[in-house]
Design a protein that fits this description.
Layout lengths: L1 E2 L10 E2 L13 H8 L6 E5 L5 E8 L6 H12 L4 H10 L2 E8 L2
Antiparallel strand pairs: 1-2, 3-4, 4-5
Length: about 100
């Protein structure tokens, strides 16, 4: 990591190659604990192309959903409900959902 001398806030003390790191702020304690384990989990990620550079990530915390199933769930839900409702529905299926915002 390189110290970021031009970062606008103390909340972003590091950058790499001039870019801020991605930030994850949406996970609850259960999701964080599962993701800290050294296990392979099925996941799906899609770049949204809005709000700067953003990706939406889905991770099956119990591996009951394949990558293709995660992709299909995202495809179905993202066209019918807003992000927060989609996230809530996926959480009931034990799927962690979060956005990573890459700020330039």
């Amino acid at each position: 990591r390189y110290s970021c001398e031009t970062c606008p806030s103390k909340g972003f003390p590091y950058s790499a190659g001039g870019y801020f790191p991605g930030l994850i702020t949406e996970l609850n304690n259960h999701e964080i604990e599962v993701l800290k384990q050294d296990i392979q989990l099925n996941q799906f990620s899609v770049g949204t192309g809005y709000e700067g550079l953003t990706s939406i990530n889905l991770i099956s915390l119990d591996n009951k959903h394949s990558k293709k199933q995660l992709e299909n769930l995202y495809s179905d839900l993202s066209t019918t409900v807003d992000y927060n409702k989609m996230k809530s529905k996926l959480r009931t299926l034990n799927i962690a959902t979060f956005q990573i915002h890459y700020m330039l």
